[in-house]
Amino acid sequence: MIPRTERYVMLMASLPSIRLLGEKALPINPARLTERMKLLEPEDRDELMTIASILSWNRIDTGDDDAAYVARAERILSAIRSATLREAALERLEIRTLIAALRRRHAGEEAPAAGTVWGIGRHVETIRRNWTQPDLGMARFYRWVGPAREKLEAGDSVGLERLILDVTWQAAARHEFGHEFDFEAVVFYLMRWQLADRWARYDADAAAIRFAELLDAALPPMASLEVAA
Amino acid sequence: MNELMVILGWLGVFAPVGLGAIGSAIGVTIAGQAAIGAMLETDSGYGRFVGVAAIPSSTVIYGIVVMFSLQRTITPENGAGLFGIGILTGIALAYASVWQGKACASAIAASKSKPEIFGLSLAPAAIVEGFAVFTFVFALVLAGNIKG
């Protein structure tokens, strides 16, 4: 007779805490995390896979066009049993829609034609109508739109990535409030793990590129070395 | 009617133990699962986790003491009093146990990665224990006023 809200006490207590800008290595590796997820009930595991199929980049079918993806995402969103998870997934997709709009406009694209399916959420039409506005008419909903646009225009891809991860992390933390040991808590933990993993990888890639640039700047060209020899 | 009052009286006498045991069982199970989970992630401090997991068991002990204080010859005159004090004490103890179990589980989950907050993280569970003690003490006080 354990309450549903305490269904995954053992699982959650067995997971280390994660910080977005924490240690260089994640506190739990994918293999161990997958092993721990075997403690999920079959129906919750199925629901987790379903949610991942629209949120996790490596599970999204890249063969889908925008309309097919949006239709599938909307179908899956409406089938998510937990209202908290449904709202959190929707907000995450809305953030992606907004970022996609900023990138498309920055790339010189025109506003999507009326009636075109190009994004998900409650703000799609507002964004389309405000395409020429600097903040796409979204500043009153999302304060980070301005800073995101500035970073995009300045070519600060690392800063933009950091900002997106921060915003997504905070949105997950907001929805997670009050869920400590239930299925929702497990899903939010995995969301945060993915964000930390993405940052850790991005950080490593960015560091490698920066290191190569510094090497290029510091060392004389290979040709001059050969001449000197 | 007299028989009903006697039945209610008996229910009241045993409720603190029965409901207290149910609450303690749930509370200890919740905190115990957290302790097991924490053991998977840590290399030491197992005894500490198990000790915290046992904290919600105190309420069943309070229930036993209250039961003995309520125990007397049950009559139609004292049945209602025994029922009122016993049932409400049992519900309060059970509720305190379950929520204390949750507080203990949170303390275990938090202190496994940050051992320095172990003592402080138990404060909510200790406060809940205080509420159970209030119920216990005043049930004993009132039990003394019931004739029988």
UniProtKB/TrEMBL annotation, chain A:
<protein>
    <recommendedName>
        <fullName>DUF2764 family protein</fullName>
    </recommendedName>
</protein>
From TrEMBL, chain B:
<dbReference type="Pfam" id="PF00137">
    <property type="entry name" value="ATP-synt_C"/>
</dbReference>
<dbReference type="InterPro" id="IPR035921">
    <property type="entry name" value="F/V-ATP_Csub_sf"/>
</dbReference>
<feature type="domain" description="V-ATPase proteolipid subunit C-like">
    <location>
        <begin position="11"/>
        <end position="68"/>
    </location>
</feature>
<feature type="domain" description="V-ATPase proteolipid subunit C-like">
    <location>
        <begin position="83"/>
        <end position="142"/>
    </location>
</feature>
<keyword id="KW-0812">Transmembrane</keyword>
<keyword id="KW-0472">Membrane</keyword>
<feature type="transmembrane region" description="Helical">
    <location>
        <begin position="80"/>
        <end position="98"/>
    </location>
</feature>
<keyword id="KW-1133">Transmembrane helix</keyword>
<feature type="transmembrane region" description="Helical">
    <location>
        <begin position="46"/>
        <end position="68"/>
    </location>
</feature>
<dbReference type="InterPro" id="IPR002379">
    <property type="entry name" value="ATPase_proteolipid_c-like_dom"/>
</dbReference>
<feature type="transmembrane region" description="Helical">
    <location>
        <begin position="118"/>
        <end position="143"/>
    </location>
</feature>
<feature type="transmembrane region" description="Helical">
    <location>
        <begin position="7"/>
        <end position="40"/>
    </location>
</feature>
<protein>
    <submittedName>
        <fullName>V/A-type H+-transporting ATPase subunit K</fullName>
    </submittedName>
</protein>
